[in-house]
Design a protein that fits this description.
The complex is a heterodimer. By secondary structure, chain A is mainly alpha-helical. Chain A has helices at about 5-15, 60-65, 70-80, 85-100, 105-135, 140-160, 180-205, 210-215, 220-225, 230-235, 245, 270-290, 310-315, 320-330, 370-375, 380, 385-395, 400-405; strands at about 20-25, 40-45, 45-55, 335-345, 350-355, 365-370. Chain A is about 50% helix and about 10% strand. In chain A, strands 1-2-3 form a 3-stranded antiparallel sheet. In chain A, strands 4-5-6 form a 3-stranded antiparallel sheet. The radius of gyration of chain A is 22 Å and the shape is globular. The chains are: A mainly alpha, B alpha/beta.
């Protein structure tokens, strides 16, 4: 079950050490770590022998803050977990509350959510994959794909007005319907993305230098990955086809046809390829959802008790004002009980464990943050490898500091 | 994907194996099997679920602590284990109460490597001591911190402030 020791001793015995062992700080603020986290490496020349991680540099006590905030006010906290795909976090949280309160969501809202969540997944994976390119010396793809990310952010802007930390939607749906501009942007994106994405793919896919730098680097076996709680693309790269969207479908994912790409080796190249294919599959889901988007159903559930009313209703109608105040002051009948809800985030199973005592805020809210759980496998993955490989491995794991430290 | 196991099936097998250690089942909104268990047998139970051929519960979703300051003495802290059988698509949640003056429970780090940091996090925020853990120290907070911040007696905001009254905010 546990062979941590053997991995280390193997690294030590494979090659006899000729030089002196040095200690090297990788981080906390190093351009190659893409976030604030520290690795104290023991190196022999360029070879990494062991690593000790320090995390918690941007810990912001979200779980504690959540115990004081109302359910609507927690959505902006979730933005800051995985800030590369904040809409997934937002919508995942809203669905958790909807599960607790038993709110039924119209098909149209579910499809809209699917479109937005898949757009978020594309932008998350694009950043991760292009950064693997940057860390192995190919900056072009990065700048090329940031144009695509920009297009996705423009779409968020049409829905919620913000770009990075989106605070998208409300409990029960969205705060407003999608507008004409969004339709145009989405159509343009669906039409043009694949071509531009293929150009990016061609830069790295069969690139000799890139393949040499990534194949066999940062390998992990399927058994160890499962034991370490790997999820998402990193788990699928070792060959385990676990995807929350298929295992426990939410928001009507069962309506769409898509494939779950899996790798075989569990190395950096496989993680890159799995993410590339997932981007294509996400685009496929978006196409289906947009084609079949129901015209009826509005943009939010009929749940006045829990859906924060629009400001114009608050100011102009008596019901709107009553519901607004009751929700903000916490006099709504939130059920007592607990739920666990998980969504497939950019990095895999993002879980929300919510215990409600019927009050205005959660009694306890815990986030299952995929990064935090799988990042502890990092020392095992880089022991015995070169320092430059350690950097590429780190970026291929897509460790996001915000999600790591909550 | 439907689950291949039913809650009753697993609960029955658990009761047969660990007669006295299994407490009552809690009904949950989302039909998530939730069982109260004796903290002393959590390690054994997790291991049994891991090696059981039929259940194959081999994925640790999460571990977390909850503080109930108003509970009867000896049950103030709770550890919650979320386990998942990927092959059967079945989830189980184990809950164990611990006394606040001596919150100790066996570590499951030897079964799941993932538990290493999660247990450290639970220790960091709730002060729950996981016995036989290889490296039980704070993880997200500073080492010099002398309290456990997620316990209910520590307020989010400065407790000395007079201008904010909890009554006006629902709590």
């Amino acid at each position: 079950m546990n062979n941590k020791e053997s991995v280390l001793s193997k690294a030590l015995s494979d090659e006899t050490m000729d030089g002196q062992i040095a200690t090297l700080n990788l981080g906390p603020t190093h351009p190659a770590t893409h976030g604030i986290f520290q690795n104290v490496l023991k190196v022999d020349g360029e070879k990494v022998l062991s690593s000790e991680q320090t995390v918690g540099y941007i810990h912001r006590a979200f779980e504690k803050m959540a115990e004081r905030k109302s359910y609507q006010q927690i959505t902006p906290l979730t933005d800051r977990l995985n800030y590369c795909s904040s809409p997934i976090n937002n919508i995942g949280w809203q669905m958790t509350v909807e599960k607790l309160c038993g709110i039924e969501i119209p098909k149209r809202v579910q499809y809209l959510r699917v479109i937005i969540m898949e757009l978020a997944r594309i932008s998350d994976h694009l950043v991760c994959n292009s950064v693997i390119g940057v860390d192995s010396g190919a900056l072009t793809g990065f700048t090329w794909m940031f144009i695509e990310r920009e297009r996705i952010y423009d779409m968020y802007e049409q829905i919620c007005g913000t770009r990075l930390t989106t605070n998208i939607g409300r409990i029960g749906g969205f705060e407003r319907d999608i507008n004409e501009k969004f339709h145009t942007l989405l159509k343009d994106f669906i039409d043009g993305f694949e071509k531009r994405f293929n150009e990016f793919n061609a830069l790295l896919d069969r690139n000799r230098i890139f393949m040499d730098r990534t194949i066999g680097v940062g390998k992990i076996s399927a058994e160890r990955a499962l034991n370490y709680g790997f999820v998402g693309p990193n788990l699928r790269a070792v060959g385990v086809d676990y995807d929350v969207r298929v295992h426990s479908p939410y928001s009507s994912y069962q309506d769409f046809e898509f494939d779950i790409p899996v790798g075989t080796e569990g190395d950096t190249y496989d993680r890159f390829q799995v993410r590339q294919e997932e981007i294509r599959q996400s685009l496929r889901i978006i196409k289906q959802a947009y084609q079949n988007l129901p015209t009826e159903g509005g943009y939010h559930a009929d749940a006045p008790m829990f859906y924060l009313p629009r400001k114009e209703n608050v100011y102009n109608t008596i019901e709107g004002m009553i519901y607004h105040f009751k929700q903000v002051y916490g006099e709504m009948p939130y059920p007592v009980g607990e739920v666990y809800h998980s969504v497939e985030g950019g990095n895999g199973e993002l879980g929300y464990y919510l215990i409600s005592d019927g009050g205005r805020s959660p009694y306890r809210l815990q986030f299952r943050r995929p990064c935090f759980i799988y990042y502890q496998a990092y020392p095992e993955m880089i022991s015995g490898q070169m320092l430059s490989d350690a950097v590429v491995t780190l970026s291929s794991l897509n460790v996001i500091a915000g999600e790591l430290d909550a | 994907m439907e689950s291949k196991l039913t809650n009753e099936q697993v609960l029955e097998a658990l009761r047969a194996q660990f007669a006295n250690a299994i407490g009552e089942e809690e009904q949950t909104i989302d039909n998530y099997l939730t069982v109260y268990v004796d903290p002393k047998s959590v390690h054994e139970m997790v291991k049994w679920l891991f090696i059981h051929d039929g259940f194959r519960v081999r994925f640790l979703t999460n571990i977390t602590g909850v503080h109930y300051p108003d509970n009867e003495k000896g049950k103030e802290l709770m550890v919650v284990y979320h386990l998942h059988s990927l092959e059967n698509n079945f989830r189980i949640r184990l809950k164990a109460f611990l006394p606040i003056d001596k919150p100790e429970i066996d570590s499951i780090e030897d079964i799941y490597s993932a538990a290493n940091w999660i247990e450290r996090e639970t220790y960091d925020f709730f002060g729950i001591v996981f016995k036989n853990h290889p490296n039980l120290k704070r993880i997200l907070n500073e080492d010099s911190m002398d309290y456990f911040p997620m316990r209910k007696e520590y307020r989010v905001e400065d407790g000395t402030r007079q201008d904010k009254d909890d009554r006006f905010f629902g709590r």
